[in-house]
Every structure is written in structure tokens, then in C-alpha cells.
DNA sequence: ATTAGTATATCCAATAAATAGACATAGTGC
DNA sequence: GCACTATGTCTATTTATTGGATATACTAAT
């Protein structure tokens, strides 16, 4: 049981969102953010945040199983969002909607 | 001209969202957040952030014009979101959608 | 074999933001 | 005067982000 803590720091929210619909490797996440016009995140912020997201159970990772000719350079580690991670993103949106639509209890007679 | 800076800190996003559909006064904003299950924001965080949001042109404020019998206690200052503020919230959502759906350019022949 | 490019990962110092608590002011009702 | 509602500032602490440096490792080209 125990309701989880779904809170995300700003960078964690952006990184997790980048994984919402696509499995991606580290530098690909930065590319997705950069090319979508988001503010720059360096890899010095990326990797520690991916680690924290993994510790919270919001993402999991696996080493790329590509044939060596599929891409140049070093091994890629792929990250994918978990069910809990998806829940964290949804919870954030529900909270914002709920805050926006809240109205006070009319003070009773 | 000059494309504006629509970036919001986490608390600014929550506060601005509380004003998205309703004009509210300071402590009412905190109530909307609290009763929707958001994490606690104190008035020591609220007022400076409202000031910053007003300086950025995302909200404007006016003193309550209520008849004195409509509520007990001191004057209320009402805040409402501006067109620019609404744009800031929309820009944030569009950015997240864009990051989530981004796919890499297929590397050409 | 060296260099360039891609990729993951950590460490440190500086800056920025949020947080708790105290303090101050003011209007209303009792 | 006291309690309650409400707006607002200040300071110290903690937390998060940022830039820059450093390290490892695999691939491709010279």
C-alpha cells in the first residue's frame, strides 16, 4: 500500500516526459528536449536524474542489443518509462486540473 | 517583438494554474492547492511569487471591492491571469507534448 | 597508433529556488 | 483589547540546477 510520492523536480519531469512514448538512450533524450525548443539540460544533469528516476521506479534501463554496424561509437543504454512513471506524469496533470477548477465550499447557513 | 520567456518555476506554475479559470485572492490560492492535494506552499512563498508573476505580466491584481459584510477580516487582493499568462501555461504543455512525441531524423543516405 | 566522434558516468564549485519561521501591518467582529 | 482574516517582508537553511573538468570505452578513419 502506501500512497507513493510522485513528485518530480522540473528536470525530472522533462526527462520522464521524453520517455513517455518512446524508449530512448541518454543523449537521445537531450536531443529530443533540445530540438523541441526546451531549455538546455547538460549530461551532467541528465545522468544523475536518470539514476534518481530509476531509484524511484519511474524508469528502467537496459544496454542496447544493437548489432555493431547499426550505429557508430560506444554502447547505448536505453531507458523506458514504467507503469509507476506513467502514473507520476498523470498524477501531475490531474493535480493541475484539479487546482485550476477548484472552488471554495459555500459557507453554510 | 522578441519571443518572450515563458519559463516558470514549479511553484509559479502551480500558482498560475490556480488562476487559470478563476480570479482568486492570495490565501484562496493556497486553499485551492491544499484541498486539491498539492504539496504545501506557505504564504512566504506565495506572495513573492505572485509579485514575480505580476512583473512578468502573467497576472494582474486589484483590491477587492466587496461590501464589508461579504466577508470578515482584512481587505482581499484579487489576482487574475492575463493573456500572456495563459500563453505561458499553454507553451509549457505544448513543449511537453512535443518532447514526448519527438523522433530522430532518419540519417540520410 | 593516434585522433575524432559517440556514449555513459562522476565530481566539484557556484548559482538559483524553495522552505520554515519570525516579524510587521491592517481591517473586522466581539 | 483580543481573535481572526489577510497581505507582505526578512533571514537562514536546504535542495536543485548549472558549467566545467575528468574518466572510461567502443568505432572509424588516417
* Secondary structure category of chain A: mainly alpha
The domain count of chain A comes to 1
Q: What's the N-to-C terminus distance of chain A?
A: 39 Å
Shape of chain A: elongated
Structural description of this entry:
Two copies of one chain form a homodimer. The first copy, chain A, is mostly helical and 109 residues long. Chain A has a single domain, classed as Winged helix-like DNA-binding domain superfamily/Winged helix DNA-binding domain (Arc Repressor Mutant, subunit A, Orthogonal Bundle), CATH 1.10.10.10. The first copy, chain A, is 47% helix and 11% strand. Chain A has a three-stranded antiparallel beta sheet. The first copy, chain A, is elongated and about 70 Å long. The termini of chain A are far apart. The interface between A and B is medium-sized, with 28 and 28 residues. The structure holds a DNA duplex (30 and 30 nucleotides).
Please write out the topology:
2 copies of one chain form a homodimer.
Chain A: H1 10-18, E1 24-25, H2 26-35, H3 43-55, E2 59-63, E3 77-81, H4 83-101
Antiparallel strand pairs in A: 1-3, 2-3
The structure holds a DNA duplex (30 and 30 nucleotides).
Question: TL;DR?
Answer:
By secondary structure, chain A is mostly helical. Chain A has four helices and three strands, in the order H-E-H-H-E-E-H. In chain A, strands 1-3-2 form a three-stranded antiparallel sheet.
Please name the defining characteristics of this protein.
109 residues; mainly alpha; Arc Repressor Mutant, subunit A; 47% helix
